[in-house]
Design a protein that fits this description.
The protein folds into two domains: 139 residues, Alpha-Beta Complex (Aspartate Aminotransferase, domain 1); 255 residues, Aspartate Aminotransferase, domain 2 (3-Layer(aba) Sandwich), CATH 3.40.640. β11 and β12 form a beta hairpin. The protein has 14 helices and 17 strands. The chain is of the alpha/beta class and 404 residues long.
Amino acid sequence: MNINEIRAQFPTLHREVNGKPLVYFDNGATSQKPQSVIDRITQYYTDENANIHRGVHTLSQEATSNYESARKTIQDYIGASSEVEIIFTKGTTDSINLVAHSFGELMQAGDEVVISAMEHHSNIVPWQMLCEKKDCKLKILPMNEQGELLLDELDQLLTDRTKLVAVTHISNSLGTINDVDEIIRKAHNVGAKVLIDGAQSVQHLDVDVGKLDCDFYAFSGHKLFGPTGVGILYGKRELLEQMPPYQGGGDMIKEVTLEKTTYNTLPHKFEAGTPNIAGGIGLGAAFEFLSKLDMSALVEHEQDLLDYATEQLEKIDGLKIYGTAKTKTSVVSFLIEGTHPYDVGTLLDKLGIAVRTGHHCTQPVMQFYNIPGTIRASFAFYNTREEIDRMIAALDRIIPMLKD
């Protein structure tokens, strides 16, 4: 795998920031985009711009074909059994809210939802809202100091009233890869359904929803080298058929009278209104780009980056890493004694190095460690050891300044 050839396809990686070559270590927030994705979006707006579905003219037919082709590409990539199980959404947050609203309509007072202590706010707040609205109970699967879920305690949390377990595949703030196979198995044993937040995983792991046997899987385009404002909800067909629509409007209907509406078939039942057409087509292009790469080689390279960064950071006096799970990927979160993460992040930016500081939308995780936030360096396959060396050298320069 030639990293330089891969990097050459990402134009933003070659710009300067504050007079320094950019080192982009904020991939957990959003990834950079290859030229092929940028070109595909431009092509849509230049040559194919039209609304999709129902149109009989050529541009509409072309746009519809390309949009639905993207759906098929994504289906094949993640191993869904049918195109109708691929729902276009605005992103992971929208996908989770769709499930909370629509699957939530099937729940009754006294039913239970289980989430974990390391969830992103997007996989906490919708369930809190649902439980308050439906008088359901929200249970929390705890984690340990290493940032690993205590799966042995899941058996005590699951009951015959548990209707859904919603957990992240990879923690955005700790990098932990959770054993979702075991979680899915245990949940299914009591008849519960499982939603996996895959916002941090499709770009780092070989995800096959059929093999996982999860009931729902949610992810965002912008974190896996595609456009912002578009994402996917995978759902098992039989469940999606049972769930009521999330929103009402155009395209999610078969027939409308002033007295009654009949809803469209899947996947359109959950796709009300004009969608992000360019985004959907661009997301398909991102998956086409990924399909040409050797995922096993990418995983190996990213693991090397994580191991190397961890090794180098641990040499810095007063630096503590948060999230030391045995199985993790691509994220290293840390604090440096005597410094504020915001100050470190600001000075790193002055040297051309982009990291993220704060609570990373996981405030319960920060409360668990009794800290306000961390400095997070998150890697993608286009990053290099040399870039990590630049970050380490920058920290060696910054830390004495901040401690004086």
